[in-house]
Design a protein that fits this description.
The structure is a single chain. The chain has about 260 residues and is mostly helical. It folds into three domains: about 50 residues, no CATH class; about 120 residues, no CATH class; about 60 residues, no CATH class. It is about 65% helix and about 0% strand. The chain contains eleven helices and two strands; from the N terminus they run ββααααααααααα. The protein has a two-stranded antiparallel sheet with strand order 1-2. Strand 1 and strand 2 form a beta hairpin. Helix 4 packs across helix 10. The protein is elongated, with a radius of gyration of 24 Å.
Length: about 260
């Protein structure tokens, strides 16, 4: 698209960037993303001038990698190896084949591992500054709109993310949601956790247990090992992952209950 090459990477030029933006705003872009793309959204999706990848490019790369992994896993599930036999065993025990395959393919999107907490003290301070900046911007825009509302409302910009007169409320709303995600009285941002498979696998094991009468840890470990290409992931690893996840969940619920009782006293 008219971009320049640099060490094997495609570098965005002003012309190529503008061409990509117009493509996103057109019919092809609407079909690609499932909705009509306004200029403000296209600007954020396309790589800036001098960069190699934009938000849309990174998302496309991730989707392509996930699709390749899903296709490989699907082939193994219906094959005659260890993975195929484990899949067949679970289906015979009572799991619906389409449901189990769908859940496993979706699972690939989440990294395997223990869910680590929350953000560091440095990240927490950055987020607090962002909240303060949002509230400050909301205040400034509110005063600006009151004084010169006719100017902003007559702007030639189309498809605002939210109606111009509602921008202060919108920004304060984001600041409020971010702040509320922090548990009251806690030093950690409990509402912010890196989503990974540790959140989903315990529910999957529980559902397998419900459908078949037992958890089938050996067969499930085989399938999860294939899904992530982790030859070292064992049945014991799966049991430990489930145990840790359930323990952490119970601890968070206990802390939350204790906090509610404390605040009600």
């Amino acid at each position: 698209m008219g971009a320049q090459a640099n060490k094997g990477k495609t570098i965005q030029t002003a012309a190529s960037r503008e061409k990509r933006i117009h493509w996103l705003m057109g019919e092809d872009g609407a079909r690609r993303l499932g909705h009509q793309v306004p200029r403000w959204e296209a600007e954020q999706l396309v790589a800036p001038v001098g960069a190699s990848l934009g938000m849309l490019d990174r998302e496309e790369q991730r989707r392509k990698q996930d699709l390749e992994r899903q296709q490989g896993l699907s082939k193994e599930l219906h094959g005659h190896g260890y993975v195929g036999r484990a899949f067949e065993e679970l289906c015979k025990a009572g799991c619906d084949a389409r449901w189990l395959e769908s859940v496993l393919l979706d699972l690939i999107e989440f990294p395997l591992g223990q869910s680590h907490a929350t953000y560091t003290a440095k990240e927490k301070k950055r987020l607090e500054r962002a909240i303060a900046n949002l509230e400050s911007a909301a205040h400034e825009l509110g005063e600006f709109i009151q004084q010169t509302g006719s100017l902003i409302l007559q702007s030639t910009v189309e498809d605002w993310p939210t109606p111009p007169h509602g921008l202060p409320i919108f920004l304060r709303g984001i600041a409020y949601c971010l702040r509320e995600s922090r548990a009251s009285g806690s030093t950690k941002w409990r509402g912010f956790r890196r989503m990974n498979a540790a959140f989903r696998i315990p529910y999957l094991i529980d559902e397998v247990d419900r459908r078949t009468g037992r958890a089938h840890f050996r067969e499930m470990a085989e399938l999860i090992r294939a899904a992530y290409g982790r030859g070292d992931f064992s049945e014991q690893d799966l049991k430990m992952l489930v145990y840790r996840s359930r323990y952490s969940s119970r601890r968070r619920q206990s802390n939350s209950s204790s906090l509610k009782k404390h605040t009600q006293v």
